[in-house]
Each structure stands twice: as C-alpha cells, then as structure tokens.
Amino acid sequence: MEKLEFYENPKFHHVRHPLIEHKLAILRDIHTPTKQFVELAEEIAMLETYEATKDLPLEAVTVETPLEKATCYMVSGRAVGIVPILRAGLGMVSGVQKLIPNAKVGHIGLYRDHETHQPIEYYCKLPEDAENRTLIVVDPMLATGGSASDAIAMIKKRGVTKIKLCCIVSAPEGIRRILADHPDVDLYVATVDRCLNENCYILPGLGDAGDRLFGTK
C-alpha cells in the first residue's frame, strides 16, 4: 500500500514487527475466541508499549552485583500512567502493566452516539499526580478519532502535558484527526487499515473490539 502523507509526521509511529503482524492476523479472525482475543490484545499492547517508552528519562543508580558495585540506569521519577478509554481500552492495560507494573491507572469514559457518531463523556478519573507523569492513553480502535481526541482534550484540561496515544487498529481518518487536533501528542498504531464504512467502522478492521474483548456479542 502506498504510504499516506501522515507517515512523514514525526509524531506518527507505525509500530511494525513480525510478531505484531502474526498476532493481528489472528486478532482479526472472526473465529478467534474471546479468551485468545484478550490475550492477543494484551500482547500487542505490550509490544507497542516497548516502542512508545523508548524515550523515557533515565537516572544513574548504584547496584551491588555479586562481584562489585556497578553504575546502572533506571527510569527516572514518577514516569508513567495508563489511561484506558472505556470500555475497550481496558483490554490493553494489562499488556502495558507487564512492562511497567508500577504505572498508575486512570480511566476515561466516553461513548459514541450511534446517530451523530460524536463522543459523549460520562467519566474521568486520573492519578492525583498525573501532571508529573507521561500518560499513555490506550484504545484498541482509532476510527474517526473523535473519542480519542476528546479524551486527550480532557486530560490536557487537568494539567497533563506529556501524553501518548496507543491504538491497535487505525483508519486514516482517525490518524489525521489526532495529528490535527493534538500535534503535540505521539500516536502509536499497530496497523493502518483502508478506510471507514458508512457506519464509521474500520475496514477491514476486526469488528467491535469491546464486544470481542468482553464476549458481549
């Protein structure tokens, strides 16, 4: 597929890896059962997090090995918070936590009006020290970008300046929306799909991520 214009944007990151491609193929399959779908979403989230955290600040520490003292490096300060967009974003949290087990978790609740396709807020709870952390917002699907853009705006209103957005499946329409609305936010995706259909579902996509994660359809 021909590269689209947003590939030239330094804030856009298409996380490519053979393991991600393999897991995505199974994730998309209509026959993949809920348990495996959940596990795959977590694993892809973990692989994306590895890439999204490569610029975290480090500080020197002294560690005593069995042989001598050594200067090593650890992530500096109150580094990371995780903010899933409810409900599907919950499916990515444990994958991030496997790499960053001490990350605090907030939650943002938005739902999409099925007629206007616009996001409506119903909940927002962030860590008390959120403004001192890099917040990784997670949502498996980036379709129109409306929910993710509104979630990021809600976070910014609470004084947070370091924000990254991690999604698994994305559409060009959503990518353009995020990069336009929030040019200061790094966007990480595992795949860029073709387009949205008339109901704003991603094609080829994987269906409704929330329903597939929680077995509600």
Detailed description of the structure:
- By secondary structure, the protein is an alpha/beta fold.
- It has one domain (7-214): Rossmann fold (3-Layer(aba) Sandwich).
- 31% of the residues lie in helices and 30% in strands.
- It has helices spanning 18-28, 34-52, 90-99, 146-157, 172-181, 209-214; strands spanning 12-14, 58-64, 69-75, 80-86, 104-105, 107-112, 119-125, 134-138, 141-142, 163-170, 186-192, 195-196, 202-203.
- The strands form three sheets. Strands 1, 4, 5, 6, 7, 8, 9, 10 and 11 form a nine-stranded mixed beta sheet that branches.
- Helix 1 (18-28) packs antiparallel against helix 2 and helix 2 (34-52) crosses helix 3.
- The chain is globular.
- Overall residue-averaged pLDDT value: 93
Q: What is the distance, rounded to the nearest whole angstrom, between the alpha carbons of the first and last residues?
A: 32 Å
Major β-sheet annotation: 9 strands, mixed
Write the element-wise H/E pattern from the N-terminal end onward: EHHEEEHEEEEEHEHEEEH
Overall outline: globular
* SS-derived structural category: alpha/beta
Number of strands: 13
CATH architecture verdict: 3-Layer(aba) Sandwich
* Total domain units: 1
Q: List segments where confidence is low: pLDDT < 50 over at least 5 consecutive residues.
A: none
Radius of gyration from the alpha-carbon trace, in angstroms: 18 Å
Using the coordinates above, name the CATH class. Alpha Beta
Strand content: 25-35%
Q: Can you tell me the CATH topology?
A: Rossmann fold
Which percent bin holds the helix content?
Answer: 25-40%
- By DSSP (H or I, 4+ residues per run), the number of helices equals 6
